[in-house]
Design a protein that fits this description.
By secondary structure, this protein is of the alpha/beta class. It is built from twelve helices and 15 strands. It has helices at 7-22, 27-34, 38-51, 116-130, 169-175, 187-198, 247-250, 253-262, 272-275, 280-305, 317-334, 350-373, and strands at residues 25-26, 55-59, 70-73, 80-86, 90-97, 102-109, 138-145, 148-150, 154-156, 182-186, 205-210, 214-220, 223-224, 309-313, 340-343. The strands form four sheets. A five-stranded mixed β-sheet has the order 6-5-4-7-10. A five-stranded mixed β-sheet has the order 13-12-11-14-15, with helices on both faces.
């Protein structure tokens, strides 16, 4: 049974928060960032050192008079996390330490699995490969998938080639194989989280992942929006405004490929639509439908969510770049205020895995903070035991 945290516990947790976000840094920098006194920071650092969460990381350079300062850092033995982008075509795994520094990454073609358990073993093997040089325990796994996810465990509406992973079977199968917590999320959420982490000025935004399926994410006040039902984010079922097609049929690689083939374009893969030469008339017809779908999708989120920016990521992003000037012209005609539209440079597999890692780090940091605050025992009121993390 634990006692209530003391001010000393909260000070220690604050110091650890800053170390997890900014290490390596000097004691003076730690004092400045926490706003705590020198004595309080020194005591917290020594307690964290005894717990195994702080090591000396090196000396700074002094060009004039003065003493060189020792940098404080997190040891590799603190542990590591793994972010996964589990796509229909490409799977990426990124492993970092708890400070977010990369240990290793890899991106491979996604294997065709007929059983959920086989896919889970394959993913865990990839994590083991990427974590081969990592130290300490694996603290957290977040896997981003092309589908909508509820509660971090259940997948809804995945790509056609990944229907066997619908539900919570994949989550259970991975957790059965690893000694670490596992969370599932959508690839769109992971992609938007990566953007939010790299730009703290973003407040309200929306993101379309235009890849194997159309997936959608949004944020309000810099926080990801999450719905209560599987319907949340399923924007692909709405009418595109082009013929009788829904948005998912024109803003996904699978759907656009079929649409283009029906219009007479001989494509072997959807990328041929912008990488190869084609007859002008049928290609123009495809681009017109694609442009209309983009305008419809942006209009829907503009009038319902009022985002400042709308991002596009995924395999169809080069085509978004091509039609974007016309999209902006049409939106200026129909909307009183047009959000900024930003196609994002996106490394297939790895950019989404990076967003998944950011989610891992947030979860791990919160868990470690809770462990620090709950480490004091009632029968040891004057002492602090090592956090059970």
């Amino acid at each position: 049974m634990t006692s209530n945290p003391t001010p000393r516990d909260y000070n220690k947790a604050s110091v650890l928060d800053v170390l997890l976000s900014h290490a390596p840094l000097t004691r003076n920098q730690l004092i400045e960032l926490t706003g705590l006194s020198k004595a309080t920071v020194s005591r917290a650092v020594e307690e964290l050192r005894a717990d195994g969460f702080v090591v000396d990381g090196g000396m700074d350079e002094v060009t004039g008079r003065g003493r060189r300062s020792t940098y404080l850092d997190l040891p590799g033995t603190t542990g590591h996390v793994a972010g996964i982008s589990f796509g229909a075509q490409t799977t990426g795994v990124l492993v970092t330490d708890l400070r977010g520094r990369e240990v290793h990454h890899l991106a491979v073609p996604t294997a065709d699995h007929q059983e959920v358990e086989d896919a889970a073993r394959w993913l865990v093997d990839l994590i083991a490969q990427a974590a081969e040089s990592a130290q300490g325990p694996l603290r957290q796994i977040v896997a981003a998938v092309p589908g909508r996810v509820r509660g971090g465990t259940e997948i809804f509406g995945p790509a056609e080639s990944m229907k066997i992973f619908e539900g919570s079977g994949l989550h259970r199968a991975i957790e059965d194989l690893v000694d670490a917590p596992v969370v599932l999320d959508s690839d769109a959420n992971a992609a938007l989280l990566g953007i939010l982490t790299n730009d703290a000025t973003i407040s309200n935004a929306a993101l379309f992942s235009v890849s194997t399926i159309l997936n959608f994410a949004s944020c309000t006040e810099h926080e990801l929006a999450r719905g209560n039902t599987p319907a949340f984010g399923d924007i692909g079922v709405l009418s595109s405004g082009a013929e009788n097609e829904i948005l998912d049929e024109l803003l996904s690689t699978r759907g656009l490929f079929r649409f283009a083939r029906k219009r007479g374009l001989e494509l072997e893969r959807v990328e041929d639509l912008w990488l190869e030469s084609h007859p002008e008339a049928p290609r123009a017809e495809v681009l017109e439908a694609f442009t209309t779908a983009i305008v419809t999708a942006v209009s829907v989120v503009a009038v319902t969510l009022d985002p400042e920016s709308v991002y596009f990521v995924g395999r169809l992003r080069p085509l978004v770049d091509e039609v974007l000037p016309e999209v902006r012209v049409r939106l200026d005609r129909s909307l009183p205020a047009v959000p900024e539209i930003r196609p994002v440079q996106h490394l297939i597999g790895l950019s989404t895995a990076q967003g998944a890692v950011y989610a891992c780090l947030t979860i791990a940091q919160e868990r470690l903070r809770d462990a620090v605050l709950g480490a004091r025992r009632q029968n040891q009121p004057a002492e602090q035991s090592a956090p059970a993390f």
